[in-house]
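User: Before I run my own analysis I want an independent prediction to cross-check against. Here's the chain; please return only the structure tokens and, at the end, one sentence I can use as a sanity check.
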Amino acid sequence: MKRFLTIIGLILLVSCTTNTESYLEHVNGYWEIDQVIFTDGTKKEYKYNETIDYISINDSLKGFRKKLKPGFNSKYITSKDAEGITVKIENDSLNFYYKTPYANWKETVLSANENQMKVVNDRETVYIYKRYKPLELDLE
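Assistant: Structure tokens:
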């Protein structure tokens, strides 16, 4: 637990010195979970993901997140379900407020750049995403 709190403290320290609004330019696109850090400090690494997340935020700070199943050559299988997102900058934090017919919840973006995004949810579970790179096959 002590190690986890140290990690969160360092992440928050780095976050405080960064303009969280700049994270917005990086969150749109395809993401896959790379690692999850639970509140007790244990980690789960993901070598392979059956689904990825597609995040789309517009200029009015509204958008959605959709689960996709990657196929070959940038083709995706998806359902019509999507989680609505409202983005708010509060107390120097970039927060995503999700809404579905079944639940509402909040995630805070700890960092985001071109290749990686870290978010923490209200249960203090940290999700580390990496930018998804589609599998391209040359079928000639």
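Sanity check: Strands lie at 29-37, 43-45, 52-57, 62-70, 76-78, 83-90, 93-99, 104-112, 116-121, 126-131.
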